[in-house]
Design brief:
- The chain is an all-alpha fold.
- The protein has one domain (13-223).
- The chain is built from seven helices and no strands.
Length: 226
């Protein structure tokens, strides 16, 4: 008989509070990002990355948005760590924290304009790019965490939304990467003809939705009778 590895500790009051913070912080990110599309219309969303909102008059709002999303990641880590205990689970949680570090770096270090050539990149711009690269860890974190939480009997009622949310998030990353490879010129330069703006926005919104779905389900699990 196989060993039962599905028993977890109950979701504590601290975990529930952290889940609420994670949900609120992710929602805050979405609201702030939406507001920037109105406040800084000079950044065409069809081909400009969201990081470039840091360069505008209301750049501080984009900084706050990135930091809010980083807080959401960390709070979710606190909310669900008692529900994940295997080595693979711990890897998923570690990747979640790495993503949080990447978002914090994206907020602290201002990006360079999308049209900046590599040899003209600033130190701040390069560190921002490093943060963006670290943020890719979220792709694997979402897949690992959702898959293992979905196998937990305590989260059985959340199985479908967990897997759907993770699937959409991961698919959005794959689609963004493939699309970028297809439309990026051979010289590797972005511009008005390289329409990567909306795919990149869909990707970040998909992960925001994933955060809110997992946080919401953590709150529901807390509310269940033992």
């Amino acid at each position: 008989m196989s060993k039962d590895t599905t028993t977890t500790k109950p979701v504590t009051a601290i975990s529930e509070t952290a889940a609420r913070v994670s949900f609120a912080a992710a929602a805050t990110f979405v609201v702030l990002l939406a507001a920037l599309h109105v406040l800084e219309p000079e950044f065409d969303p069809s081909w400009r990355f969201i990081s470039e909102y840091e360069l505008g008059r209301y750049g501080w709002i984009m900084v706050l948005a990135f930091l809010s999303l980083a807080v959401s990641y960390v709070a979710l880590f606190i909310a669900i760590r008692s529900q994940l205990w295997t080595i693979v689970d711990r890897i998923g949680l570690a990747l979640l924290l790495i993503s949080a570090v990447g978002l914090a770096m994206a907020g602290i270090f201002t990006t360079d304009p999308i049209t900046t050539s590599p040899d003209a990149a600033t130190t701040s711009g390069m560190l921002h790019s490093v943060g963006g690269t670290l943020g890719l860890a979220m792709t694997f974190a979402a897949a690992i965490i959702s898959w293992n939480l979905a196998r937990n009997p305590a989260w059985s009622m959340a199985r479908r939304p967990l897997l759907w949310a993770a699937g959409i998030a991961v698919a959005s990353t794959v689609a963004f990467i493939v699309f970028t490879i297809m439309v990026l010129p051979s010289d590797g330069k972005f511009g008005p003809d390289v329409l990567v703006g909306w795919p990149s926005r869909i990707e970040i919104l998909a992960y925001s939705a994933w955060l809110m779905v997992v946080a919401r389900q953590a709150i529901r699990v807390r509310g269940q009778k033992p």
